[in-house]
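Attaching the record inline, Q. Sequence:
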Amino acid sequence: MFKKKHKRKVSRIIIFTTDAVDARTRQLKIRPWTAGLLTLITCVLLGALIGYIAYEGQIWDMDRQKDAKQQEMIEVLEQEKASLEAQIDDLNVKLEALSTAVNEQSQTAGALQEELMQQSLPTDYPLTGQAGIEEITEGNPMVIFTASDGMVVASAKGTVTAIEEDENYGNKVTVDHGNGYITIYYNRGDAQVKVGDEISAGATLFIIGDDNKQLVFQIMENDEYISPTEMLSING
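Structure, as predicted:
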């Protein structure tokens, strides 16, 4: 039979000493597996150090390139920001100018609308010459003008809606001013307009002659007769 051989245990001994006179020698026994582990760790650290040293320049270059790209992006963004701010300022200027123009147009439109409303109010004197005036308040209010010459004219802008004969006053012309007001003119002369005519204030309705010196004038507001003297600017 063969005897079983026993493996010898081999240990590493590290001796520590100094050059002093009374120096003592110290021994540190290290087991094989411990020595192998220390060797492995040392190799890994050395490898890492060598790798870092070898690639240090590349690492710094990569960092510098990364920083350069970031700085470039920041500069681009700052330029875009400045451009956007300039565009915003330009738009604000244009918006302010547009707002001013709109306000001016609104004021102009308001003034024009007010002027048109005034043109449609029957306030103008309905004759071109002087005349005697008689006001009748009983029944449907009216004013009777007795003129020596001149013309019967529209007291405001409007549309001729009717031309009729009247057994008491000759001919009747009705003008609708489109704002709730209607004016009615009676005269024995011939009407100078026709139904459907769009007329302005001062448009001739009748020509005063020897046999038609009298004008009977009435105003209606929302289908109710009102006194003409409340509306007319009588300066004739």
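The chain has a mean pLDDT of 85. The first strand starts at residue 12 and ends at 16.

More tomorrow.
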